[in-house]
Amino acid sequence: MKSFEELGLDTSILKALKDAGYENPTPVQEGTIEWAIEGHDVLGCAQTGTGKTAAFTLPILHCLANRQDKGIKALVLAPTRELAMQIGSSLRDYSKYMRVRHTVIYGGVSAYEQIKNLRRGVDVLIATPGRLLDLHNQGHVNLSKVEFLVLDEADRMLDMGFIHDIKTIESLCAEKKQTLFFSATMPPDVRKLAMGILNDPKQLDIAPAEQRVDSIEQEMVILRRDRKRAMLTQWLDENTEGQVLIFTKTKRGADRVEEDLQEQGYRAVAIHGDKSQGARTRALGDFKRNKSRILVATDVASRGIDVDQLPFVINFDMPENAETYVHRIGRTGRAGAKGKAISFCCEDDRDILHEIEKHLNLEINKNTEHPFVLSERDLADVLEKPTRGGGRSGGPSRGYKGNSGRRGFGGGGGGRRNDSRGGGSRGNDSRGEYRGGGETRSDNRGEGRTENRSEGRSETSGNRGGSGYGSSRGGGYGGGKSKSSSSSSSGVKKKFFSGAKK
Ligand code: AMP
């Protein structure tokens, strides 16, 4: 592994990295920084938590270190305000000993300050696509000198409907430019966009999700849907230390959980797309500074949440697909820290449960010993593995149920990897076959409109297995330290939330 010095970064950047306490580059940084400094386009399959923000900001800063010319030379596009702000704050840290000016622009707030900042002169602009185009159309932004273009979380931007905006923005930048393209997943629409923009890119696949989540203890609490709130408060009563990020499926759901917890005296705040930008920024800031212990978030709003020491993630509602699960639980166990993810899995969550296990190639601990148990029938129903191609497509849930009760999950089965795949390669393992196998998940689990259009799109997850990257480098940042999941130590728990503090 090369050091930051060996990657040839400018001394002012090295000094800032020292201040930040970074000792060595993460794998995504090692790959990207070197290529970017050499002038290559980069296509990186990497998710938040791998250190990708520094991977693309450091080489740009390096290249801009001694530049005097005016104008926006680097543009970073991000899907959400939170992520854009997060990138801005990282960039500020990394460039603290340099004369590189940057600003962040995003929608949902008045453009006045943003326009003022743009007028002062900017070298690096971080923006969400919609606001950027608005300000461009009003004549406040000139992108013609942009020679570094970064697309961060490209899959998310496509899911949010930004494809045309991205293409327009790309065409407004200088023709001769270097593009760094990052995406957590690489479904065909994202790959197509990448190939249309990138010029003979170097490729890096650093998101073997199943490796990153290895450092996270996972638990599925199998319970009745109507008892989830009771279970949540019971868990919080018993686990009184450490910050908790709770995911709900809908904005309304987030509000309900927030209200419920506040009524019971918990310091809980919800963030989602309907909250004002000010409220979201405040809530995130309070959570980051540990002023509030509990943050309730929808998937979209959670983007950009970067808390190094977040011990708990709770999936109050199961995610729409396995990749969202990985994104969610990846909020804990970051930068090498320990984390635990608890998911509330209900009567009709069978398919997503098994999709997740198949995706991770892991049997996750099931907790069925608590006060909110399912009936025998429902429990068996949830735990029963779907037969290939036999998803629920609307028929009565009993239709496919066998009589095996907890088959496969009893003593010692929990957390076991199904094979010994190693390294970072995502070759053609069984996931592709299973997930491409015509599984049709029932969509009646929702409690209203899904906020993120991506969720539930079968192609997002269905194509992970076969993205065909040649350069799998293995091991996301913070992952790969412990190969065995801590959830592998036991099967179904004997005690309700064992180890809980009163
Ligand atoms: P990111 O994937 O960019 O969201 O980064 C995840 C977290 O890792 C952030 O809190 C970074 O500050 C931290 N980080 C990034 N690179 C390094 C590094 N080389 N050494 C230690 N921490 C890092």
Give an account of the 3D structure.
The structure is a single chain. The protein has 502 residues and is α/β, with parallel strands linked by helices. It has 2 domains: 11-206, P-loop containing nucleotide triphosphate hydrolases (Rossmann fold); 210-381, Rossmann fold. Helices cover 35% and strands 13% of the residues. The chain has helices at residues 11-20, 27-38, 52-64, 81-94, 112-120, 129-137, 154-159, 163-172, 188-197, 209-212, 228-238, 251-263, 277-288, 299-302, 322-329, 350-360, 376-383, 430-435, 458-462, and strands at residues 42-45, 74-77, 102-105, 124-127, 148-151, 178-183, 202-205, 216-222, 244-247, 268-271, 294-297, 312-315, 339-345, 365-367. The strands form 2 sheets. The protein has a 7-stranded parallel sheet with strand order 3-4-2-5-6-1-7, with helices on both faces. A 7-stranded parallel sheet has the order 10-11-9-12-13-8-14, with helices on both faces. β3, α5 and β4 form a beta-alpha-beta unit. The chain starts with 10 loop residues before the first helix and ends in a 40-residue tail after the last helix. The model is unreliable at 389-502 (pLDDT under 50). Adenosine monophosphate (AMP) binds next to α3.
